[in-house]
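To the wet lab folks,

You asked to see what we're planning to order before we commit. Fair enough. Below is the target structure as tokens, and below that is the sequence we designed to fit it. If anything looks off to you, flag it before the synthesis order goes out.
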């Protein structure tokens, strides 16, 4: 667990890179119950104007949350978390899939040993989550 005095304003979270493949999307669909065809069927995705199959927004959000909780060392320290879905994560039908990078910086200290972290979440150099913020309680 990160101590309050170890994460002053300006502290950067290490950038995490997550690989996302079509297999991951199928597994997430099974776990979430979201079987929308745009998340696994290229023909359907392109028919509705997407460049290819795209990752579930909540899956992408979950990766960002995981980067924060892994840094904290305690998932229970996450107090508040929100994002805006700004661009889709395109997942090609290859063994490598694509990558999602998550970084962040402590922007503000609050009462009760809490800090606000602003996250940067990108895929292929494009920001895919906007207004991504997490409030966490430090030890």
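Sequence we intend to order:
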């Amino acid at each position: 667990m990160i101590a309050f005095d170890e994460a002053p304003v300006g502290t950067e979270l290490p950038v995490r890179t997550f690989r996302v493949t079509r297999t991951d999307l199928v597994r997430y669909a099974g776990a979430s119950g979201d079987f929308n065809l745009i998340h696994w069927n290229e023909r359907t995705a392109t028919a509705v104007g997407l460049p290819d199959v795209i990752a579930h927004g909540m899956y992408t959000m979950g990766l960002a949350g995981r980067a924060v909780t892994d840094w904290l060392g305690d998932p229970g320290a996450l107090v508040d978390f929100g994002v805006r879905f700004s661009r889709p994560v395109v997942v090609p039908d290859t063994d490598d899939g694509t990558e999602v990078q998550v970084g962040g910086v402590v922007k503000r200290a609050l009462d009760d040993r809490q800090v606000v972290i602003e996250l940067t979440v990108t895929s292929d150099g494009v920001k895919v989550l906007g207004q991504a913020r997490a409030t966490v309680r430090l030890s």
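Structural context that might help your review: Helices lie at 22-32, 42-47, 57-72. The CA atoms of residues 10 and 106 lie 5 Å apart.

Thanks,
Computational group
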